[in-house]
Amino acid sequence: MQPREDGGREVNFKGGRGGQGLVWSAMRGLLFNAVLAERVRRGSWVELKLGERANLDGRNSTFLVDIVDETIRARLTMLDIHPTGPLFGVGKSGVGGEVATLEAEIVARFPKYVARLSEARLEPGRRPLRVAVRDLSLEWLEPARTARLSFRLRPGSFATAVLHELLDVESAAGGAAPISTGQCCRK
User: Fold this and answer.
1) Domain total for the chain?
2) 3-state SS assignment for residue 20
3) Of 93, 101, 163, 178, which one's alpha carbon is 20 to 30 angstroms from that of 18?
4) Do 45 and 110 fall into the same domain?
5) Contact criterion met (CB below 8 Å) for 99 and 6
6) How far apart are CA 163 and CA 153, in angstroms?
7) E strand or H helix at 152
């Protein structure tokens, strides 16, 4: 860490191309989260739209949705496939229709991030808008009155987001705890 003039410290993160990997990841995450938040607001984060890319559960593989029929709806309900959101990069996003329009509108709200990410020439990608929680179990440990919660997530998923959706946490001061993982999974 290097000292700054204002008394703070500047952290130099190692990562892709001169330590910028973490910065690029954060910017891409912000754009992804903005798209997800709008899809949640519209109630479309659990639906597949024509022209969208669907993610195969547990894999980084996607396919273009060219028809939304009973088979697609059943696979979506069974958590076998998931709607996706963008990881911004230079090139085609792989989506069309109303999803492409929505994503373009949201990304346009962040021109400075788009410019930085465009300069980095990262490849575009897709990530699922939701995560399947597998092997969920709760065990009460006595006499300590402690609970053990366990579950499995796909790589790249955040257990803290799952905990936020499962638990009603209050701080020791009696108010709601300052947990902020977003409202992506509220029903």
Assistant:
1) 2
2) coil
3) 93
4) yes
5) no
6) 12
7) strand 146-152
